[in-house]
């Protein structure tokens, strides 16, 4: 499986394209729908679904444009099933760069922990709350890839001062659901550069 990282939207949120043959899963289309669609078209890919690590505004800005273009379903954790439609819950009403406030139609499916199969893709969903109540991590075990949203960053951790955030919960999620992975796992965060589990264990100042 290939993975492409594409920063999108007002906060440079990492959108990921997971590619098997000519099929792709789109994770966190945070904005700049035209830029994302150009990449999909240039690579002659057929999107299978949109996955959301969580439903903050900077991760959902291009959801409706992309799903309408390709007639695909959107998946989010059930605890954030109302956030796409609500600018207060997704945070866009609080940030001046989100003008107008960001909203989208409801998700089509709600995720819980466990193994999921969509089209050619099989992966594990781990519930990793703390940054937000419905934050989830997508694990592609064979490829040693963890897409963690805003739970963990290279040298940092997710913020917990937004509605539903909690520092103790975030640290538990990181320690129990991410740092327990093999050290060679590539960690793909919602912002910034990719890292590995080993690198964060050794050098992340929040985890020492």
From TrEMBL:
Entry-linked SMART domains: Lactamase_B (SM00849)
Record's keyword terms, sorted: Hydrolase, Metal-binding, Zinc
Superkingdom to which the source organism belongs: Bacteria
Residue ranges of the TM segments: none
Residue ranges annotated for the Metallo-beta-lactamase domain, each copy included: 12-191
Pfam family, one: Lactamase_B
Cofactor dependency: Zn(2+)
PANTHER family noted in UniProt: HYDROXYACYLGLUTATHIONE HYDROLASE GLOC
Protein name: MBL fold metallo-hydrolase
